[in-house]
Amino acid sequence: MIKQFEINTSSRDEMIDITRLVQEWIDETGIQEGIVVVQSMHTTAGVTVNENADPDVKTDFLMRLDETFPWNHIQDRHREGNTAAHLKTSFTGHAQTLIITKGRLLLGTWQGIYFCEFDGPRTRRITCRLSE
């Protein structure tokens, strides 16, 4: 079972909590036990699992990525000028695999699923696949 979602981002770099979006789709399917793969369909946007209680975690995460992968590094050769976005995506990963049990995503107390925009704002797509 596959579902595709569109996400509109509003900044060059941002993390959008998509946990509820994924859980609502799982609820619609009625699947009780299985796995779901959540995948970004882009080379400059990733998917990660991280803390969803303190918004400062997202701020710190994006700040540290900018420090590690600076925008417009003088030695970057990629003509589009977004090498940092490609590196950030490879670092965070383009997909996450999560367990479903009793119809619910199996996440830790503070965990959430995040779509990570690194070259926005844009209209983006994520694809989710459920397997029982």
TrEMBL record:
Superkingdom as given in the UniProt entry: Bacteria
Pfam families membership: YjbQ (PF01894)
InterPro entries reported in the protein's UniProt record: UPF0047_YjbQ-like, YjbQ-like_sf
UniProt record similarity statement: Belongs to the UPF0047 family.
Designated name of the protein: YjbQ family protein
Organism, scientific name: Bacillus salacetis
